[in-house]
Amino acid sequence: MGYQFSDLTSACEQDWHAYIKHDFVRQLGAGTLEDGAFRHYLKQDYLFLIHFGRAYALAAYKSASLADLRQALEGMKAIIDIELDLHIEFCRQWGISEDDLAALPEARATLAYTRYVLDTGSRGDLLDLHVALSPCLVGYGEIARWLNAQPFTRRGADNPFDAWIAMYEGEEFQQAMQAEIAWLDARLAEVSPARFAELKKIFNDATRLEIDFWQMGLDRAD
Ligand SMILES: Cc1ncc(CN)c(N)n1
């Protein structure tokens, strides 16, 4: 029998869809998102990515085999080398300097989500941690694909957020996402129903925190 990653998304379908198809995402795809909301999101996401880089470092520390260590490294590279580099460049284009980024106060939604993942990883085992991290890596890859399939999505110079979609639909990010799903599929195949129920709760909590992160961007909440 056994489980796979798609069983987590199916078990949390309502929250998963609320995350993937959030108004922030729709407005970004349509190119109608307010600049101020995107800027607020970009700034907080910089802080978010730094903490998620730390969470992948924790996954590396918790890895007992070379294969697990490599998987943690792949996740960390996706965050640090693919996303953060491009992110700093986006911020520059949107008038946010590295000095601005360094001085940012952390919004409550950023604090709640990042510390939840780090706490879950500290308390639990490597699988708990990867499950807590998965809505981040898998979710954004899925969002880019979902946006591309929507009739309201505008691509190219017509949409000021086009480069954001391009980053997450890009081959490097999509490959990192597929590698994470494959790693999770192999681990979930071995778990009992009781263990799956624990993992489902972690996945659902992290997904709800992703929803709050989008909402924080829309509301420009601190
Ligand atoms: C809040 C959030 N979640 C996910 C991702 C994609 N790594 C991100 N950049 N920011």
Brief overview:
The protein is mainly α and 222 residues long. It contains 11 helices and no strands. The protein binds 5-(aminomethyl)-2-methylpyrimidin-4-amine.
Question: Topology of this structure?
Answer:
Layout: H1 5-11, H2 13-20, H3 23-30, H4 35-61, H5 66-93, H6 98-102, H7 108-123, H8 126-148, H9 162-169, H10 171-188, H11 193-219
Helix pairs in contact: 2-11, 4-5, 4-7, 4-8, 4-11, 5-10, 7-8, 7-11, 8-9, 8-10, 8-11
Bound molecules: 5-(aminomethyl)-2-methylpyrimidin-4-amine (NSP).
5-(aminomethyl)-2-methylpyrimidin-4-amine (NSP) binds at residues 45, 48-49, 83, 136-137, 140, 210, 213.
Task: Characterize the structure shown.
One of its GO terms (molecular function) is thiaminase activity. One of its GO terms (cellular component) is cytosol. The chain is an all-alpha fold. It has one domain (5-219): Heme oxygenase-like (Heme Oxygenase, Chain A). It is 79% helix and 0% strand. The protein is built from eleven helices and no strands. The protein has helices spanning 5-11, 13-20, 23-30, 35-61, 66-93, 98-102, 108-123, 126-148, 162-169, 171-188, 193-219. Helix 4 (35-61) runs parallel beside helix 7. It is globular. The termini are far apart. The model has no long low-confidence stretch (mean pLDDT 95). The structure holds 5-(aminomethyl)-2-methylpyrimidin-4-amine.
